[in-house]
Structure formats: C-alpha cells, structure tokens
C-alpha cells in the first residue's frame, strides 16, 4: 500500500504578501501532481488545516485565509485534521486515526518547511511511522536566524530538510515518488 499522503496547511492565508520571499515557486504544482496521483490510485490521503489561536493571524477561524487553496482543497469524504500548533500530531487524534487504519507510512508535503512540515515529520519519525518528505512539494519563507542574520527561503528550507533526512524521515522528490507509484503501484 502506498504511504498516506499528508498535505499540510494549503490554505489561502499562506499566500499573504507580508510573509515575504519564498522558495520552490512550483511547490503547489508538485503537491497537486501528488494529490492527483494519490486520488487516481485510490491511495490514502488527508489534509491538515491550521486554525490559529492568535486573532491577528491569517489562519484565525472565520477569516478567508483559513480556506483551502482551491487547487489543493479536499474533495468530499477526504479527511481533514485541524491543528492549532505546527505539529499535526499534537492533540489532533491523528496518531490514533492512522493506527486504527493500519497506516504505517507517510508522505508529507506542505508549508512551512521548518515549521509544520518539520514538526509533523519529526513526530511521525519519533512515533515509528516510515516517513518521507517530498522536498520540492514543500516551501518556506525568508527569515532571520537566531543571531539576527537574514537567511533566504532556500537556506531555511535546506536546513529543515537536513534536520529531517536520515533521522526522522527520508527526504526525496515528488517526481521520484510519482515515478515509483506509476512503476510499481506504490512509491515505497
């Protein structure tokens, strides 16, 4: 069975201009390709939605930013897990839901690489799920490091992927996962 595809925080608010420069301008296309392939294969998938506890956030419930991006929105019947912190496993019931369905492997994509993607992949690895991250189907934004130095979105993303690869997850590409799915019926 293919791993369960998890799309993290593909909401309209993530396109807010104040978030600044980002990497992987084609990440949504890569996510859409994965989503279409998983749907066609009738493989397991779910969507994660962030509902902020901060009223000034673009993800505050009731704001337009909470809505899914149309191209990546869940279809009727596709599971949606809500979270209030970066880690999709925290207080969401996700771990129990996966175990109840016998799901042992995950393919994670979404935003932000060093935030919700990394937090969720770390927890998945710690909980003994076999975990992949499609790095080109993830993205993030430029930010300052702890010392105050500006870091490009590419640098922030690369460090997040380095933090995950080999310890919590296998970092791969969407193309590699799609090719394996087409060739074998499962990308793993």
TrEMBL record:
Species whose genome carries this gene: Pseudomonas oryzihabitans
Domain of life assignment: Bacteria
Gene3D superfamilies: Isochorismatase-like
Pfam families, alphabetized: Isochorismatase (PF00857)
A GO molecular-function annotation: hydrolase activity
UniProt-recorded name of the protein: Isochorismatase
Domain Isochorismatase-like: 4-175
Key words of the record: Hydrolase
């Amino acid at each position: 069975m293919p791993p369960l595809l998890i799309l993290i925080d593909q909401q309209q608010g993530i396109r807010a201009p104040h978030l600044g420069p980002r990497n992987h301008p084609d990440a949504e296309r890569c996510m859409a390709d994965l989503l279409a392939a998983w749907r066609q294969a009738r493989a397991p998938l779910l969507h994660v939605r962030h509902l902020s506890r901060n009223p000034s956030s673009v993800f505050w419930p009731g704001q337009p930013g909470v809505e899914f991006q149309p191209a990546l929105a869940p279809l009727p019947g596709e599971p949606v897990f809500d979270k209030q912190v970066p880690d999709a496993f925290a207080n969401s019931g996700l771990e129990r839901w996966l175990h109840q369905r016998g799901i042992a492997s995950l393919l994670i994509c979404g935003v932000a690489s060093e935030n919700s993607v990394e937090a969720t992949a770390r927890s998945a690895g710690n909980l003994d799920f076999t975990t992949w991250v499609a790095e080109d189907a993830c993205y993030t934004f430029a930010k300052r490091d702890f010392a105050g130095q500006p870091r490009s979105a590419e640098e922030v993303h690369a460090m997040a992927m380095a933090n995950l690869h080999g310890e919590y997850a296998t970092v791969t590409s969407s193309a590699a996962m799609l090719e394996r799915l087409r060739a074998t019926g499962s990308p793993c």
